[in-house]
Amino acid sequence: MSNRYEMRFAGSGGQGVILASVIIAEAAVISGVKAVQSQAYGPEARGGVSKAETVISRDQIWYSKVTKPNFLLALTQASLDKYSTELAEGAIVMMDDSLKAPEYLDAARVISIPILETAKTKVGKAFTANIVAVGAINRALQLFEGKELMEGVKRHIPAGTEEINEKALNEGAALISDKQAAAFKQSIG
Amino acid sequence: MPSDLIHEYMRIDHLPQIWCPGCGNGVIMHDVATAIHELIEDPDTPCNRDDFVIVSGIGCSSRAAGYLDFNSIHTTHGRAIGFATGIKLANPKLHVIVLTGDGDCSAIGGNHLIHAARRNIDLSVIVFNNDIYGMTGGQYSPTTPNGDKATTAPYGNVDRPFDIANLATGAGASFSARGDVFHARETISIIKQAILHKGFSLVDVYAICPTYYGRKNKKGDAVEMLKWQKENLVPTSKFYHMSEEERAGKKMIGILSYNDYPEYTAEYAKVIEASQKKGKK
Amino acid sequence: MSKAVLMQGNEAVVEGAIAAGFRFFAGYPITPSTEIAEQSALRLPQVGGKFIQMEDEIASIAAVLGASAAGMKAMTATSGPGFSLMQENIGYGVMAEIPCVIVDVQRAGPSTGLATSPAQGDYMQAKWGTHGDHPVIAISPASVLECYTLIIRAFNLSEKYRTPVIFLMDEIVGHMREGVELPNPNDLIINPRKMSFHDGANKQCYYVPEGEFIPAMKPFGQGERYNITGLAHDESGFPVNSNEIADKLVTRLLEKVEKNVDKICRIEEYAMDDAETAIVCFGGTTRAVMSAVLKARAEGKKVGMFRPITVWPFPEAQLRERLPQLKKILMVEHNHGQMLQEVQRTVGGKLPVDFLGCVDGTVISPDAILNKLNEMEGKRHAK
Q1: CB of C343 closer than 8 Å to CB of C322
Q2: How far apart are CA A153 and CA A138, in angstroms?
Q3: List of E strands, C97-176
């Protein structure tokens, strides 16, 4: 991994992409890596395209914003179309498989998986899609240990929902094949 | 014993006060001091002088805070109730008395008045209501009657006036009353009840401004204006025994509305307790 | 597992303030400062403090000053439009010498502007927003950890100099989340409020002994009776219409900050020892500037970073010290050139001062700064 890994999380307001970015940043901090998280605020966060960003690094992170993301999560077509145009070279795109990947994306770097459907049917709660995504992201990129990620989740969910969120993490991880995990692994420190 | 009271409760080094001859403000200030004095002296209402904070805004009325020898704070125009809210919430044991004018509390400070009333925070707001901006030289205020003259209403006031006591009631004040300069004994009693009331209380005290309002509107001198109050403002006990015809053109002084809504700082004390219990779990 | 936690800048302000003894908040919701109100509402009652949501920002600062007069360390938080509304009462706090902290999380203006976007357009307002001649202390954090540590300093300065202190944040730092390891509370230095009057002169509330600048005052309700006013007043706190007393008062108010400027002004420097170009910046802009300086250094350029942490008073002396070694200065800030004026005033025409700003609500990137440096280089060679 380069010493600055930029991640962008996009979807529609209410899908919880901001929380997903916060949990990744929290897990990074727990694992002893530096992290800075920020997000788009305002009307956008209430129904339009919603965007959040996390930068992780072994070194001190100065500039806090994402300019050329190394990773993009997109949960809606609008957000995929909008943000897939400004990626770093070799960036990984994770998208819900209900979306159509733009042709200019390198298919070998696209992870198209049923995030929304898994949340709805396998976990049983549509609102856990963001946690399913977090589980899938960590399995694919292998950023943190499982217990670090779960601790990151716990710090940001209401008490009493640990079980369903753990299930969502696991179902998300199960969406990633061993082959994908081997191909997309990032190394931290 | 007026002179003893003045020596005891006023900053005599700074007297005489700045108000014009015939102004009603000195009487209202004296009423406030008397009310506090009677509460301190009364064994049934245990309190001492340091429990009182006098807060005022800007205008003729608000100069009273400086003359009263208590913890006193003379704030910015319209904002006395905002400052008072901070003082009361910071230390709910204090009796916080706001001395304000018609313009100070119902024009520039109108928003603070209605919200303090809505919260029902335990402040006692005494309005020196003289129907005019005196400090700036006689401009119309929110209580200047329609048609009356002022330096900014040379052809007569187009605005419709507020009834501040009713405004407070409408905004949720749990104690609203009216007093005046002439009926000092009744007004002192009302102010005492307002201070003792646990919740937001407002006493709209009809003042007199012979210098600007009186002169502009041919209301005569101070004596004439007090005579008008004597004849047209009627204490509650008397007012209730009057017929409809006798009441025509007259206004009642006394407590106009009263309620025992929960008081803000007492409610907030419960929030503190609840948050600390939750933390311990 | 690391001891660090992920924390938002606005949240760190509240935690740091509580560590400094903050127990009273009055405010009105406004983006991007709202999390400070929300976190205060949650945290203050847990430590026995008080939170109140007022009807507007004017009432908020009024309640804060009232609570401080009654003995509580008090704070409010707002953004540009609300900061404008507070100005009259900030001046009152200065004149009446009531300590408090006002947080302004700056957003893009003027007027309602871009409500959710970052900017630093309130720099001059922080100094000149209220009327009349007055001292101002303003501090600007550049990281989440500094939101915690510097808000403590803001409270300390406010108590020490008995004056409102402006905590001049921006959306970049307010909304950023970072991993932070908070200092041990036992290691913090907290200035308590003096709880008795200075001796002498019949123990008057605004009495200041010879050689000192600041009165000592007991809060209301603790056994002393005195008057507070925004009018020119004597040592008893009573209004006076005397030119001589007014002059003495206002001069003392100004001098209590001016004559202690070396104790109040703090800066941060990076790679300045051999720098020929200094990039001056403050608050959230520091993040992009630091990235740019590191890149420029990697390319062998002699560039350093000079950052006022205390943004008012402007640290003139510290910048002046660096002038002999410098060939040029670049001011980078998210406005149309506000601190630039202080830099130019300090430099006094001795060096070229270039400027990179932004008023479109975006964040200046490290690349934009590097491009600007290259452009300046080009200009110099062309001459």
Answers
A1: no
A2: 12
A3: 100-108, 114-118, 137-139, 164-170
Find the chain C residues whose C-beta atoms sit closer than 8 A to any C-beta of A. Answer: 1-2, 4-6, 31-32, 115-116, 171-172, 175-179, 284, 286-288, 290-291, 294, 363, 365-367
Q: Any idea of the CA torsion for C116, C119, C123, C124, to the nearest 10 degrees? A: -90
Q: How far apart are CA A4 and CA A60, in angstroms?
A: 9
pLDDT in the model for residue A189: 46
CA-to-CA distance for C383 and C376, rounded, in angstroms?
Answer: 11
Q: What would the pLDDT profile of B186-235 be if each residue is shown by its tens digit? A: 999 999 999 999 999 999 999 999 999 999 999 999 999 999 999 999 99
Give CA–CA dist C276/C269, Å, rounded.
Answer: 13
Q: Hey, of C10, C145, C177, which one would you mutate to test binding to chain A, going by the most A CBs within 10 A of its CB?
A: C177
Closest partner residue to C366 among A36, A40, A63, by Cβ? A63
Domain boundaries, chain A: 5-184
Single-letter amino acid code for the residue at C136: V
Stretch 47-106 of chain A: residues touching chain C, C-beta under 8 Å: 61-65, 67
**How many structural domains does chain B have?**
1
Helix axes B80-90, B264-280, angle to 10 degrees: 40
- Asked if the model's pLDDT at residue A156 lies above 50, the reply is yes
Q: How many CB atoms lie within 10 A of CB B107?
A: 18
What separation, in Å, do the N-terminal and C-terminal C-alpha atoms of chain B show? 59
Q: How far is C9 from chain B (nearest CA, A)?
A: 23
Residues 6+ apart with CB under 8 A from C313: C135, C136, C137, C257, C258, C261, C264, C265
| Contact predicate B67/B75, CB 8 Å | no
A42 contacts C363? CB cut-off 8 A: no
Q: Please tell me the distance from the alpha carbon of residue B83 to that of residue B70, in angstroms, as a whole number.
A: 16
* Minimal CA separation from C176 to chain A, in Å: 5
Tell me the pLDDT of chain B averaged across its residues: 96
Distance CA C140, CA C160 (A): 19
* Residue C308, domain extent: 266-382
Cβ atoms of A73 and A96 closer than 8 Å: no
Using alpha carbons, select from B43, B71, B37 the residue that is nearest to residue B55: B71
What's the pLDDT at A41? 65
Q: What total number of domains does chain C contain?
A: 2
End-to-end alpha carbon distance in chain A: 8
pLDDT band of C201, cuts 50, 70, 90: low
Q: Please give the radius of gyration of chain B, using alpha carbons only, rounded to the nearest integer.
A: 19
* Closest Cα in chain A to C144: A36
Q: Residues B63, B98: contact at Cβ < 8 Å?
A: no
Phi, psi of B264 (to 5 degrees): -60, -50
Report the C-alpha gap between C180 and C55 in whole angstroms.
Answer: 34
The pTM of the full predicted model, rounded to 2 decimals, is 0.96
CB atoms within 10 A of CB C302: 17
CATH, residue C281: 3.40.50.920
- CATH number, residue B12: 3.40.50.970
Q: Where is B184: in which H helix or E strand?
A: helix B184-196
pLDDT digits (tens, 9 = 90+) for B103-116: 999 999 999 999 99
Per the DSSP assignment, residues forming a β-bridge with C77 are C103
The distance of C1 to chain A (nearest Cα, Å) reads: 6
| Among candidate residues A40, A34, A116, A25, the one with its CA nearest the CA of residue A75 | A116
User: Mean per-residue pLDDT for C159-180?
Assistant: 96
Architecture of domain A5-184: 3-Layer(aba) Sandwich (3.40)
> Of C160, C187, C214, which residue is a domain's last?
C187
Q: Does C24 touch chain B (CB under 8 A)?
A: yes
Pull the structure tokens for residue C26.
Answer: 């009055």
d(CA C210, CA B265): 42
pLDDT tens per residue across span C79-108? 999 999 999 999 999 999 999 999 999 999
